[in-house]
Design brief:
The protein is elongated and about 140 Å long. With 252 residues, it is of the alpha+beta class. The strands form two sheets. The protein has a seven-stranded antiparallel sheet. It has a two-stranded antiparallel ribbon with strand order 1-2. It has five helices and nine strands, in the order αααβββββαββββα.
């Protein structure tokens, strides 16, 4: 029989009716074994000071009962571990650092600055465009075109994209409106042009002028014409590129 069985038997007999109680010698032996048995939890004081046998037996019985009740309590808690589990805290929403899902504004193509050797203005044009400056003054009665030598030409390679700029002095005795009427009549007969009645009045930097929108083989074109001082000015060509370049025009 093991030591644990002897101890259990001794306690059973002590707690039973007096008729079944074992002699004190048996209990003494059991207590002696308890006193010399190593325990798993040294923090609990299993060793006793000198005291009478009945008191020692009573303390043993109380210790056994406390241990039994504590074990039942622990087992009960283990079986109910998940019954009232504390809910996990809801994570606090953090501000997104991701970047925004809105597309940034387009910065447009790189621009290059050009100065006209004949007409003296400066203007910005897409860097991919070739600048072909005029070699002669713009003659009266002529229109602008991608092959005319009096036109400052901005071309994108060998494609159809084209912007032309030119200036000429107003004939003596001619008003600004008369010059604009004459130019509109010239454009009416141009391959890519429009009727005189299609021109609209516009203002460019507080300077009154006129604008014509036209179609040229499926491409949108535009002409801006105005007079400044004693000279008439025109910028004509691909509408999108003209609208991009016009705000950068600087006439001395």
């Amino acid at each position: 029989m093991t030591r644990q069985t002897d101890l259990e038997l001794a306690l059973d007999r002590y707690l039973a009716d007096r008729g079944d109680r074992l002699p004190d010698r048996v209990l003494e032996d059991a207590l002696t074994e308890v006193d010399h048995t190593a325990q798993r939890r040294p923090s609990f004081p299993w060793r006793f000071p000198s005291m009478s046998t009945p008191l020692r037996l009573g303390l043993v019985a109380v210790a056994v009962i406390v241990a039994a009740v504590g074990g039942m309590y622990l087992l009960g808690n283990r079986s109910n571990t998940n019954v009232a589990a504390t809910p996990s805290p809801t994570p606090t929403a953090q501000p997104s650092t991701a970047p925004s899902s809105q597309a940034p504004e387009a910065s447009g193509p790189a621009m290059a600055q050009h100065e006209s050797p004949i007409y003296g203005y400066t203007i910005g044009a897409p860097a991919a465009y070739q600048f072909i400056p005029a070699t002669v003054e713009w003659p009266a009665g002529e229109d602008l075109g991608p092959e005319t030598e009096w036109t400052d030409r901005f071309r994108a390679g060998t494609g159809t994209a084209f912007v032309g700029i030119a200036s000429q002095p107003l004939p003596e005795g001619t008003t600004g409106d008369q010059w604009l009427d004459t130019y509109a009549a010239t454009v009416e007969t141009r391959e890519c042009g429009g009727p005189v009645g299609d021109w609209t009045d516009v203002t460019f930097r507080d300077v009154p002028g006129r604008k014509l929108s036209f179609d040229c083989g499926g491409f949108a074109g535009v002409d801006y014409a105005w007079t400044l001082g004693d000279r008439g000015w025109v910028i004509s060509g691909d509408a999108a590129v003209v609208e991009m370049m016009l705000p950068t025009l600087n006439i001395p």
